[in-house]
Amino acid sequence: MSDNKVALVTGASRGIGAAIAERFAADGWDLTISSRGRDALELRAGELGDLGAGRVEVIPADMTDADAVEGLAAAHREAFGRCDALVVNAGMGQKGKVADLPVRRFDRLYQVNVRAPYILLQSLVPVLRSTAEIAGAAKVIAVASITGVYPEPELSAYGATKAALISLCETFNLEESVNGVSATTIAPGYVDTDMSDWLKDTIPGEEMITVGDVATIAHSVTQLSRNAVLPNVVLTRPGENLHRA
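C-alpha cells predicted for SDR family NAD(P)-dependent oxidoreductase:
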C-alpha cells in the first residue's frame, strides 16, 4: 500500500479533470489518471510529475465499456492498494430538445455519466473503506452540472443524467458515510473548456467558471474530516440568473 495519499481521476487528460489532477500533484499525491487516449495521458503524466506528483499510473478506459471501467478500478487497486479520493469527472454532453433527441444518444449519456460512476463506486467501495480506516477518511468527488439541479432548455437528457449522479452520491452517503467514506458532487454552470465551445459566441470563455475554480472545490473536499459530509456544491456564474447554467 502506498504511503502517499492516492487519487484516481477519470477524464484526466484535459479540462476539469486535468486541473484537478494538477492540484493533487502539487500536493505530492500519487495518482491514477484515466481517459480514452493513452498518448494524451502519457503526456499529462509527465507534466504531473513535474508539478510534484509521486507515482502516476496511466490507465486508458472507455467509460461506455463496463469491463474497461471495472478494469480501471482493479488496476488502481493493484497499483496502490488505497484510494483517498475517487474523482469521477469523465462525462459527455449532448444538446437537444426532448422532442428531438434520439433515445440512443440519451442511452450513451447515461452509460458515461451514470452507469460508469456506479460501477466505479461499487468496485472501489472496499478500498475506499479500508483507506478510511487507515487515513481517517476517503472522499468521492463527482463532477455533475448545474443542469442536474436547475433545468436548462435543450439540456434535458444531459441534466437528467447529472441529476441521477447527484442522487446516486446522496444515497451513497447515507450508506457509506458511517464508514468514513463520503461523496461530494460539484454542479457548476458553464465552465471554460472545449465542451463549452459551442456556446462561446454567446458567452465568452473568459466569463465562464474556470477549471481552477472546480479544482479548488475538489481539493478542498479532501481536506475535510470523516465527520464532515458535503453532499453537493453548486457553482454559478455572476449575474441575475443564478439558477441558469
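The first helix runs from residue 15 to 26.
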